[in-house]
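With this grant's support, we have settled on a layout for protein records. One resulting record is reproduced below.
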Amino acid sequence: MLKGRNVSLKGAYNFTKRTLTRLSSVSFHRNRRRWKALKGKYKGKRVFLIGNGPSLNKTPLYLLKDEYTMCFNRFELMTERFCWNPTFFAMSDTTVIEDSLDIVKRTIDKVSYSFFLSDEGGKWKIEDALPPQDNILYFYFEGDEFSDKLPYIRAGRTIAVDGLQILNYLGFDEIYIIGVDMNYVIQKTADVYQKTKMGGEMVQSSEDDDPNHFDPRYFGKGAKYTNPTDRVMENMLNSLKRIADWFKTKTTTKVYNVGYDSKVEYFERKDFMEALNYSDERIDMLFSEVVDKFGYSSISEFFDKVTVCNSAIDFNEEKAIVRLPVEEGVKILKKVILSYIPIGPYKGSLYFIKR
């Protein structure tokens, strides 16, 4: 009984100390004013929350050029494949933030707003690493309930849950989830270097062979992150289930899962292409913009350079552009990513352009 009371007193003390520190901080009040200015700003709009799962390789992300989007962590690796930058960027794993600081600094200049977890108790703080900017906001993990009172949110165990709370606060009427696959496996070349307080494992990869994201370099050689152990995965899925229930019972925001190969069944399912409802002409136009980015004036000129292969086994690494059916292209992507940039899918195929 005494032990429980001591824990309770310690928690109350830490809360009081944290509150007093915040109230005396100029940056805290400035941050809170920025959040207040954003509340409900995007009422009536829709947004695509983009995870980083392998299914993104099957998703025609180039079609999202004129949509609101939120991305996370090392999504920058994906942006070479199309012609747009995300609207919003968010990170809450302080280990990944510190380990990806160069990516963070490049990304915040390309997006409308960036959101980072303020790790007040940590030795390393993102606030100290970045200059104050009007488009950078910080949030805090506080309380046991999901929140529409930013900058305070409930810890989500996965950045997708944090992002959902932020997008709801921004006022979006519809949120479409893609790339939140939750089909994690243990990376064989990642070694444990630290145990976490919650029973997780911090690991560091020794090779560019990340099996859990759209690019093998995502948590590639030298990267540090939390291992997706069974316990970690259970916590993530439970958190996603709880926030799905929260959206249905506590908000008017509609959330749909339009991703491919996702284990997350807690949100209403919709087909990605049906959700967009784009005409063939608009799809052709958006793909032609990607083709133009790589120096081809038209789709027809691009196709003149294409070598068609029907299976990953037949992939010809001497050719400038190789076309494969989507499922076959996904098989070869991680092997050839250092030599080729994949674009598409377009009309059922992935296209690999030599770097």
